[in-house]
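Subgroup meeting minutes
Present: P.N., E.W., G.H.
Scribe: E.W.

1. P.N. recapped why we're keeping a running log of single-chain structure predictions: easier to compare across weeks, and new members can see raw inputs and outputs side by side.
2. G.H. added today's entry (139 aa).
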Amino acid sequence: MAGKPVVLGMFLFAMIVSLTLWGYWKLHTEPFRGLTDKLAESFPGSNPRVEGGKHGMHKKTPSILRIVMRVPYNPNLDDQKYKSQLGRILEIASQSGMLEPYDVCEVHLFYQPAEQTPEIRSQKIPAAEFPHWQTPPGD
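Output recorded in log:
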């Protein structure tokens, strides 16, 4: 084989791989698109990433909604701002109806100073605290 058939085969292969990746990504992110868009609108520049599910579907593990966002401040140093933003994130997630199906909500806020190690602060909120969550428990 040479010439045109090889080039056509390469294009066909590239299209199949691209469509497969697009389909997988669409199916993987579509359930969380609404919440992701609302968070991005409320917190410009935060590049929110939302995902959910269980680790090991066959195991008795909790279902987790995970929210990861960039913040313009060090969340380990500005406690007031962190708690305020965390509360707003959970409020948006609750209003979007995304919290109810999950046992735990993990929120990870990170600050990435230029050419330095990122500063990350995480909070796990159990489902029992979703409706009345105000301040991080034990924080």
